[in-house]
Request: fold
Amino acid sequence: MESYLLAQERSWYDFMLDCLTAGGVMKRLDLAVNDRAGILDIPALKAKYKAGECVSFFRKQKGYEGTEKCGNDTPQNTGETLYLGSTSSELYMCAYQKNYEQYVKNGTEVEDTEIKNRFEIRMKNERAYYAVVDLLNYCDAERTAFSIINHYVCFVDRRGRKAEKTMENQ
Reply:
């Protein structure tokens, strides 16, 4: 899709506006925040959820630790994932160790991957539509993504006070 848009000299914003103008329906939209420096610590986020240090609108969360048997039957780490919200709802979030995913899929060494972690906001139907409207109003994907994250999730310290760092400035 990216090369298609480049060939037409259109941006993603142009494409989304054209879709809406033509009466298109937003069935799903994913916004991803790529962590190239390894700042987003998925195991630490999971621990904060388990310790009650996260306040969110979500009633459900799931954490996964992936392992896979390798040649000598020693389990190999395939990364950790945290789902915030139900995967059947119109909006949920997923944080996972992208470097481990690339290791399993492509054999790329964990230390050599460009993207270490990924935080995705997955939206359907009305939530996807309103995210597209916000993207088109501000033409700032970072602003849209972090406003959604900060609306739905807030990390607190052990005494229940809002944490100094938000996802945006972590």
